[in-house]
Write a structure and sequence with these properties.
Length: 135
Amino acid sequence: MAQLSINLAQSSATAVEAQVGNHSIFVDRPIEKGGGGLGLMGGQHMLIGIGGCFCSTLFAAAQSRGIEVEGLSVEVSATLAEEGAPRFTAVHLGVTCQKPESREEIEKLIAIAEKGCISINTVKTGLDFSAELSV
């Protein structure tokens, strides 16, 4: 079974740096919430991951069908739980696109991207989760 692995290392009193190949990003809390403001919060990165995965999958679907996509914009909005553990209770992707101009064509690409996106499939179906001390 294929696995992906990302390493996060502490970079300040409140932040970590994620290193993936030649890329790195910081995860932190806003200053007003006790963080250093060095990066986005983890939940924001999660939403970027969902939106980015969706876009990447849509581009791949379009490319494999010889469809040119231009002006794609995706607004990811999430609803936070009002009670219980901090979490998102809903995520919505609002998609606009200049090309293809055909509504049917872009709606088909949206449906394909939603079905083929690893992040969306994970959120929709859940996952096993564990956290433990590694020695």
